[in-house]
Amino acid sequence: MFKKLRGFCCFWVFCLFFAFSSSQGADTILTGAGATFPYPLYEKWIEVYRGETGVRVDYQAVGSGSGIRKLLDRKVDFGGTDAFLSQNELSKADGEILHIPTCLGAVTVIYHLPGNPVLKFTPDLIADIFLGNCSNWSDERISAVNPGVRFPDMAISVVHRSDGSGTTFIFTDYLSKTDSRWQKQVGRGKKVRWPAGMGVEGNPRVAEFVKKIPGSIGYVELSYANRHHLPVALIRNKSGRFVAPALEAVSRAADVALPTDTRILITDTPSPEGYPISAFTWLIFYKEQFYNGRNRDKALQLGRFLWWTLHEGQKYNRKLLYAPLPKGAIANAEAIVRCMRYQGEPLMEMLFGGSE
Q1: What is the CATH number assigned to the segment(s) 28-104+280-352?
Q2: Is 0.85 topped by the overall pTM?
Q3: What tens digit of pLDDT does each residue of 4-48 get?
Q4: Percent helix, percent strand, percent coil in the chain, to nearest 5
């Protein structure tokens, strides 16, 4: 009788402990903000991660520029950006900021034409269109690159980002590398002075506007083009090949030596089979997690979430049209996460006891 009673009590103690642990996890909220470029993937990660751990992660897709500002102002636990912080930006931050890549993605050129034929673009042609120098689809420069395609006598309506955007940074970095006129007149940046077109906020809005406006052209991350059933152009790479933004071509673009801090631009890749407007995107966070009264549990939860994105999270990348991280990038990112501290003590040792 005593053994049965003791077993019954142990069972209920276990149930109460499990319920308490689950409720504690459910109350934990990590906040992030930034890039819209990887948002479809982050949205999936957040859903899966909460299901596995009970930890809530709130990520606002407000653009890389806003995400960086929110982290600098310490209003979020982590930021998301497609444009890594420069040395000048890092030196002005109130604390050391670390970057880890989460995936590779492609910035695609999307358009809306009758029948939506598959088009090819050269770097100088893209620059001409977005500079406003090529303003009609019947322009012979477009036909010269696309023999056999019949183009309508229709004005080209350029749609671009108006907010501080990592997608814009990647796109303008590519054009700055491949066209001297673009470099001189516009340059690269998260936000630039556009010579032509209309500006809207976020990847989703660019895709929506191109979908609605006949004759329009814009640039978005591949998953947004896919979601809106928009055609994507083949782009001529550095080797002279016209390459589609397929995941394999995006992965090939990253076939370069990576710095230990992972801050690298791979646009205009030298890889013969690489898609030329490919890029890493990053999560950014403070190395020292003890700030603004931040508690130890939240710091540990952030470390655990970041580690998860580099391992379990990677299996969702391909399904959502993002290329998984190369092994070298994962190894570098692991070393960066291990640098995290709480009151000077290694955070990951607190979390995993020194063995991940």
Answers
A1: 3.40.190.10
A2: yes
A3: 444 444 434 333 333 333 334 445 699 999 999 999 999 999 999
A4: 45, 20, 35
